[in-house]
Amino acid sequence: MNNSTQNIKVQAEYSGWEGYLSRFTTQIAGGQEPDVVQTNWNWLPIFSKDGNGFYDLRKVAKTLDLTQYDPQSLESVSVAGKLNGIPVAATARSFYYNQKLWQDMGVTYPNSWDELKAAGKAFKTKDENSYPLVLDYMESLTLLHSYMVQKYNISAIDDKAGKFTYTPAQWEEFFQLYKDLVDSHVFPSMRVLASYGKANTWEMKPWISGQWGGSTCGTPMPPCMKLTYSPLITNWILVLSLCCREPKMRDCSSNQP
Fold first, then answer.
1. Side-chain-side CA neighbours of residue 25 (13 Å)
2. Which of 5, 24, 69, 152 has the fewest beta carbons closer than 10 A?
3. Residue 115 covered by a domain
């Protein structure tokens, strides 16, 4: 703290993940968002399609030492040449396994997609209600995307062109993999999950009772679960509101750039 900032009082806002995006969207629309916000990296196209949705942090490079950050990580949160955020988490989605359940099923952790399918079939043979994994809709898509990146090393979307990059045959392969994994009993289908009502997977009874054998990073994990490998990079970022009340950052009377 220095003489120019010693009179600034910081008030934190807590928010659980459920409804976080809806709340932030409402705050942005009303110009009432906090000065500094933690957001998902993939929300940038929603709130800052042209780079003008958040403050360009390169304007305060004399105050904020950007040399501490890897240039590639800064590029990942830049839109149209404007630095829209600071990456605070660059990590990978990882599988966690319930070690006890896998041991009870007599199945070893898979090291390939074929072994993952074989594990699902082995689980079903011993207990039709137990699965190696449980994935919600987003985690399912993430897993499928991981497979496609491993095989083709391309993204599903060309951000600059605003078009899909997969061929029709690749899209067929993408969705066929989901069907194959469900048919192989790797994780419950969306229909099965819907039968437990509108809830997070970690709030559902089979998860609590230990019938589902694992999930991906981001789900609350009991101590018995063991970290394995990491197939996909994701980011959390901090962004600065266009209405930041700090005079050194911006003298702002509205939420417009």
1. 7
2. 5
3. yes
